[in-house]
Amino acid sequence: MNQLWFGDNLVILREEIATESVDLVYLDPPFNSNANYNVLFKTPQDEAASAQVEAFRDTWTWGNEAQWALDEIMRQGGSVASIIHALHSALGESDMMAYLVMMGQRVTELHRVLKDTGSLFLHCDPTASHYLKIILDAAFGPRNFRNEISWRRQSAHNDAKQGRKQFGNVRDVILFYTKGRQWKWNTQYTPYDERYVKDFYKHTEPDTGRLFRLSDITGPGGAAKGNPFYEVMGVERHWRFSREKMQELIAQGRIVQTRPGAVPAQKRYLDEMPGVSLQNDWSDIKPASGRESLGYPTQKPLALLRRIIEGSSEPSDTILDPFCGCGTSVAAAQASGRNWIGIDVAFHAIKVIEDRVLTQFPGASFSVGGIPRDFESAQRLALKDKFQFQWWANYLVGVQALKEIKKGPDRGIDGQMFFMNGPRGWGRILTSVKGGQHVGAKDVREFKAVIDRERADMGLFICLNDATRDMNAEAASFGFAETAHGHLPRLQIVTIADWFKGRRPVLPSLGHVSRDYFEPVKPSKPSKVKRADPNAPEFTFTFPGGKSDDAVIHFNPSAVRERA
């Protein structure tokens, strides 16, 4: 059964994935390259070009979590602990060490869940690949290292223009390990290059126009290797074929003699050759672009994942990706007829993958785990990880922009929603999520101040348990928002307990904003603004409101769902 999991992959691996149950692991963890990767979303806000969902942060810092992880690794002992101890002595309590400790824990679990015939492919960049290889050597054993694959992700990278005195970085590293000495393998081929064809396939068959080359058919090693000795076309030799096989090839016209007395040779047609067996330098697969691109800066092309999956597994095998991001590995596994398990800590990623699978593979069957389905499971999530609870609660109410990141100031804003507000332009609703047990009127009062400071139209205060009388009174004192959809409470308290009882906040309709308007998109160059014709006729709105005497409000038609 295909499985999609929301949560920390270390927890999911330990609690949900059985030992020796996976045939292939592909992982593309954050690289620790000190870059913040943002998923860009179109929003109707004029105050910023786009809102950003930080689906993950590509930096790691040493702190309590890293120290706990280090302590756990050292308690477990073994080869990974020895390597981590040595690296810690060399690197100290650095950001890189925090990253390596995190990876050390997960690599150990991935080795456990792999079958004895399983393979692992770890995708990284040169920033940390040398450290990761040492950790993988410790977990899998140096003898089970198979390849360091180089994927050329770009044709050129002009670092010189940025003032850098170094060569352009155009490749990623993929480290290939197996769990044991026997593993699944399907040889793959790439086409011959034009130079090779020109140099070796010099002959053309007159009747068919097929290109062919002539290959030696003498038996290497002669009688010592057991090759038969007999005469063919007047030439006696040790041959690589039996008499019967040789006669069959002659009858097919595949054995030719270029001149009398010459040693016969075998025709090998170009169109029958599979090509060159795949090497460890991959430059033939281009980055995801066009319709395939979902706007993720680190998105990998589907062809890359299909090559890995189809080369090292069989149909119906199980593929695991513990950092599945936008779901390219999941889509590749589904397209290749494999079962799959995808894990991601960002709730946004889970929703993107759900949509991607159901859109590209209608009727695909999979389960989604880690997402609360009742109040009790929501309580457990809040206790286990307050950040995951916050992200889940935001998506529950339908936010269109949020910050899925554990660090950095949020200015009291956990999420945002937008609605069309008639002649007033776009309205904005802010959310604040509190998953703790001790939430009171003070928290509501502080959120009121945030709504005022941000000049937002409305706010949703989301908490786990029932609101107290003082909390409700504080929210009610904020009054009502004047919207194109009527008078609505400006601040509403949404409790998860009420949500699972079917009670919902009163919100303006978002129905006439296209769903696609909030899907990830690639950044594009700003186009020239075309000014409106002042002589153009005005039109009326179908909701309350009128002209503003103090400001010119421009209605944004690009966010209106087109109707046939």
UniProtKB/TrEMBL annotation:
Residues 22-353 form the DNA methylase N-4/N-6 domain. This is site-specific DNA-methyltransferase (adenine-specific). GO terms for molecular function: DNA binding; endonuclease activity; N-methyltransferase activity; site-specific DNA-methyltransferase (adenine-specific) activity. The keyword Phosphoprotein does not apply. InterPro entries: DNA_methylase_N4/N6 (IPR002941), DNA_methylase_N6_adenine_CS (IPR002052), Restrct_endonuc_IV_Mrr (IPR007560), RM_Methyltransferase (IPR001091), SAM-dependent_MTases_sf (IPR029063). Keywords: Methyltransferase, Transferase. One of its GO terms (biological process) is DNA restriction-modification system. Gene3D superfamilies: Vaccinia Virus protein VP39. Residues 398-477 form the Restriction endonuclease type IV Mrr domain. Its EC number is 2.1.1.72. Belongs to the N(4)/N(6)-methyltransferase family. It catalyses: a 2'-deoxyadenosine in DNA + S-adenosyl-L-methionine = an N(6)-methyl-2'-deoxyadenosine in DNA + S-adenosyl-L-homocysteine + H(+). The keyword Transferase applies.
